[in-house]
Amino acid sequence: MNLILLGPPGAGKGTQAKLLEQKLNMLQLSTGDMLRAAKDKGSEIGKKIKLIMAEGNLVTDEIVIELISENIDKSSKCAGFIFDGFPRTLYQADALSELMSSKKQSIDLVIEMRVDDSQLIERIVGRYSCKECGEVYHKVNRPEQKKGVCDNCKSINGFIFREDDTEEALRTRLFNYYRETSSLIGYYYAKKKLTMVDGLLPIQTIHDLIYQATKNNL
Ligand code: AP5
Question: Which residues line ligand 1 (CB under 6 A)?
Fold first, then answer.
């Protein structure tokens, strides 16, 4: 089973991918995480990526397709892939389809996570994550259980905010979502792969709905 989580910035793709990974022995492939790792290396390409991401613009199709392809090749032992934040353009969607075919696999399910723009702003400006393990929190919706201690890895080394989690960068990210990515909803609907989930529901309820959708798809 290979699935795509599709939705605007802050829709909850990463949160749901982590929950599904644990439950279904699947592997999350997040191009955002891969790009953040590449930019932290400080190479020339890393510096370019850093600037593009901080402004909220899309990195080139070639770079993200290359990253996805490398990571798929490295990971053969999981029960399937959860694509988080990829594809984001029609070009990427076609490339993914070819990549899957070349491995005699396919995309089985695409979950569209729908959330109002006003809620996205609140989610994005309230988000922070553990410096050590990257566990994602929210000031109001999901604070750590014991203040200053990561629920996941128990680190007390603090939390960080993402550079692109500003209102200004979010406006650009949303614009790019509607301009480049939202056409994928029609693309996967036409392929009969699409299921819509109300992304405003509580995190656990959304997880249960997505889990059920994966079961219906088997
Ligand atoms: P990426 O890292 O993919 O960011 P994004 O798509 O903007 O999505 P986010 O990670 O911001 O949000 P999410 O949907 O994962 O939400 P989360 O679960 O964290 O991409 C970053 C950048 O990299 C892009 O702008 C671009 O520059 C580049 N890039 C990446 N992929 C690319 C590609 N394929 N092509 C080109 N460029 C690419 O949740 C958000 C917050 O809400 C959290 O605090 C969480 O706790 C909370 N929350 C989650 N669910 C709920 C809920 N149900 N109710 C209440 N709160 C909730």
Answer: 7, 9-15, 31-32, 35, 52-53, 56-59, 64, 85-86, 88, 92, 123, 126-127, 136-138, 141-142, 164, 173, 199, 202-203, 206
